[in-house]
Amino acid sequence: MASHxxxxxxxxxxxxxxxxxxxxxGAAPGRRAAAFDVTISAATRLLVVAPHPDDxxxxxxxxxxxxxxxxxxxxxxxxxxxxxxxxGVVSEERIASPTAGDYRQYGTLRERxxxxxxxxxxxxxxxxxxxxxPDEGLCxxxxxxxxxxxxxxxxxYTRRDSPPxxxxxxxxxxxxxxxxxxxxxxxxxxxxxxxxxxxxxEDEHPDHCSTHILAREAVTAVWPVARRRPRVVHYLVHxxxxxIGPEGEAGARLRPPAGFPRAxxxxxxxxxxxxxxxxxxxxxxxxxxQMLVIGPFMRGFGRxxxxxxxxxxxxxxDCWCGGANIVTHLRARRQPPRHKPRS
Length: 343
Hints:
Layout: H1 13-23, E1 34-35, E2 45-50, H2 55-69, E3 73-80, H3 86-93, H4 100-121, E4 128-133, H5 138-141, H6 177-191, E5 195-199, H7 206-222, E6 231-235, E7 266-271, H8 274-285, H9 288-299, E8 305-310, E9 320-321, E10 324-325
Parallel strand pairs: 1-7, 2-3, 2-5, 3-4, 5-6
Antiparallel strand pairs: 7-8, 9-10
Helix pairs in contact: 2-8, 3-9, 4-8, 6-7
């Protein structure tokens, strides 16, 4: 997760949390969630798509454990290295004015933390793929820099305009939406998932809603016929002050946030066993760089259940990028699959 899309109070999270919880005590509770009705077995092949290092653990650490315990396969793909989190770089490196090199080093640290967190959950490093696309730039790739004819986007943080060579799945990939979609398509073919977990389109972080747009496009390109697609569930990370508040206090079950659009899909809750919940909390602690700055927010997801949303919104959700809603400018790109998917 990157920094400036977070609520302002998280700049001083340990001081502000008690005040916020007290102020929110009278807020209306969130909607109820139905039981998680996805069958998990040894045949399950789960692919978790995360915009940043830690999103996969915040949202689906329990689900990953459940699939592994059943003998299924778990794969994780992280689109960015989370290297544009300025507050994190300043806190971790104690540098007032970070350079491009500092941001790149921070991204490497966050990738290492992801590998450590996945080890806690039993996911091998070979099953974790980092794509190295621009943190705080995915909405640009989903809009102005989407076409193969567009110039590559240049990160104002790392000064990169392409993923590191070691993280390129398709040689020559640059910071364009079409290149990211091609890499996601290649991963979809190789992983052959039966279940995919994506960011929810209602997520208020530009990188998250853009990940939904780009990943759904890749899924549709690989499986043009909807009934043949893997089952897709969505997870929410950023929505107002959620999950901190009366529906997200320590020790409470995680509930859907109040005000979430009722036509934006149906909620499902996955209860975690005590062992699964404990392992999830240990995995979150592996993200030491994030705990340093946004610890209360991170711990807000360490509950005894996980929430998912199934179904697309009746009306396309807004996705804001630099003050513009990119959804209103997107044109559907429908092309034949570039590879033959595994059955």
